[in-house]
Amino acid sequence: MYEEATDSVFLDRAEDIAHDFDWKKSCAGNASVYEEEYDHPVWKRYIEDGIKGGHDGMDWLEFEKFFEALRNDAPMPVDVYDGASWMVITALSEMSIAKGGAVMDIPDFTRGRWHHEFI
């Protein structure tokens, strides 16, 4: 697990668990130790190529995966269910605000199919 405020990585190993109570002294700022071994190739290329586009480059990463899927006739990186779930948050937030901060249920656009088909 990565913790941004302290730039620290915590792994579920015996030697890491031993630092549970002294992590600031022994683990804070240790992320660079793990970068070379664990950093994903997509992130490495993202940094090497330079950040492109809006949202600190995240738009570029999504577009790249979208076009890659189109070129290779592969499934889209974000399906219609993810898209609907992400976009409904704005509408539900507006509804919640209009109702004084009421809790709003997030619709299950898959009608329960995610329990069986999307795992």
Explain what the structure shows.
This protein is mainly α and 119 residues long. Among the domains are: 2-39, no CATH class; 80-115, no CATH class. The chain has six helices and two strands, in the order E-E-H-H-H-H-H-H. It has helices at residues 14-17, 23-26, 31-38, 41-49, 58-71, 80-98, and strands spanning 2-3, 8-9. It has a two-stranded antiparallel ribbon. The relative contact order is 0.07.
What characteristics describe this protein?
single chain, 119 residues, mainly alpha
Tally of DSSP helical segments: 6
Mean pLDDT: 82
Q: Helicity range of the residues?
A: 40-55%
Form type? extended
Radius of gyration: 20 Å
Query: By helix and strand content, what is the structural category?
Result: mainly alpha
Number of strands: 2
Q: Per DSSP, what share of the residues sits in E-state strands of 2 or more residues?
A: under 5%
What's the structural blueprint in terms of helices and strands?
Elements (H helix, E strand, L loop, with lengths): L1 E2 L4 E2 L4 H4 L5 H4 L4 H8 L2 H9 L8 H14 L8 H19 L21
Antiparallel strand pairs: 1-2
Summarize the structure.
The protein is mainly alpha-helical.
